[in-house]
Amino acid sequence: MTLSIKNRNYLALSSVSFCHLFAWSAAMSFFAIWLGQHLGIGATKVGILYSANAIVALILQPVFGFVSDKIGLRKTLMFFILAVLMLIGPFFIFIYGPLLVSHFYIGAAVGGVFLGFVFNAGYGVIDSYIDKVSRKYGFEYGRARMWGSFGWACATYTTGIFMNIDPDLSFLSASAAAILAICFLAFADVDMTKEEMKKAQSVHPRDVLALLKNKSILHMLFFMIGVGCVYDVYDQQFGVYFVQQFASEAEGNLWFGRLGAIQTFFEAVFLFGAPVIANKLGGKRTLLLAGTIMSIRIIGSSFQWGPEWIGFMKCIHSFEKPLFLVGQFKYISQVFDVRLCSSIYLGCLFTSSICTTVFSSFFGFFYETFGFSESYLVIGLVAGLCNLISARLLADDRAKKAGGMGEAAAITGQTQAEAKSV
């Protein structure tokens, strides 16, 4: 039976998302644990490494956003990112790990360039591309992205086992996943009409710079910093905190792998239904709901009531992350000019990277000095406050959906037809 073009692209890009997130999880879900247990690197230096990755993303994310909008639906940048990702196994085994042990700061700089390219900046290109294709061919972004969560779950489970055998196996599996991702991307049949090419080519740097004068963009960035970025910093070394709840590191590693697999499995399941919620609530309310859940989860993690409780807090991620992902693209497509959707999305990631660069080292020191529990309480309260402020700042995308142009869309000249839901 011949696949329709819609189903072919859905299957191809769902598989790309699965493989890319598998590779990311295989390399990074136990990153802090690998650094501490196998290389003997403390929490403060771990924070420095996360900051190094974010610094590279600072440079690449705005560039990637503009290039993605400029080339439209062409797959060139996607292929390039995945080709570099193929090298991740040998990079970790023969370059990154040895350098961190012998020359830490050189290793941090080299690793920041590589990991910042393929993950911190690269994943924004891939997610944005899937969103664009989903709108063109009529399938939900969230239901393609859910396969990425399944990929993350599979890799987290296997990595929890590999960490007790040989971490190199995880890094090699990441390279294998990247090879498969390239094959699936080649299978996708995405074309561009003359009108789409004209729209893409019309994107100019001044259009992107003009966004900086748009107060709705600034309000969205406040939410991404105060809620999204703060949450990312919280999640960076959560694995170390969880493993500490067990009698041995080996037992903690095994259970963290299982927990991550369970959490991301349910995250994938909820991604299937998240578009329904986002379509009903609109992008703004979906983001605020996700932010509320995030804040509660972070504060709840500060209570050391045993590994079961902390594991339960981790599993709440299954509900908040799909809402955050789908709500973000929903909000962008309903409020702003869709020609610039990649620039806006990667611009949000860029802003978060700036804050991650600052926050990672600071909170790494905070974890080491005051402990995880106290740190999480502060982080959760900050995220909750920023979420409350964002309820007043974010634009009302539902008004535009009902028939109005909306403030931000009017500024950029977007039409109602362009603002169709994700």
Please report the distance between the alpha carbons of the first and last residues.
Answer: 28 Å
pLDDT < 50 stretches: 402-422
Q: Tell me the series of helices and strands, N- to C-terminal.
A: HHHHHHHHHHHHHHHHHHHH
Mean pLDDT value: 82
DSSP E strands, number: 0
**Main β-sheet, in a few words?**
none
Radius of gyration: 20 Å
Helix amount: over 70%
Structural class: mainly alpha
Number of helices: 20
What is the 3D form?
A: globular
- Name the beta content range: under 5%
What does this structure look like?
By secondary structure, this protein is mainly α. The protein has helices at residues 5-28, 31-39, 43-71, 76-85, 88-102, 104-137, 141-162, 168-187, 194-201, 205-210, 215-236, 238-243, 249-281, 283-301, 307-315, 317-335, 341-370, 372-393, 397-402, 407-412. α1 packs antiparallel against α8. The longest helix has 34 residues, at 104-137.
Output the keywords.
20 helices, globular, disordered C terminus, mainly alpha, 422 residues
Short recap of the structure:
With 422 residues, this protein is an all-alpha fold. It has 20 helices and no strands.
Write the layout of secondary structure elements.
Layout: H1 5-28, H2 31-39, H3 43-71, H4 76-85, H5 88-102, H6 104-137, H7 141-162, H8 168-187, H9 194-201, H10 205-210, H11 215-236, H12 238-243, H13 249-281, H14 283-301, H15 307-315, H16 317-335, H17 341-370, H18 372-393, H19 397-402, H20 407-412
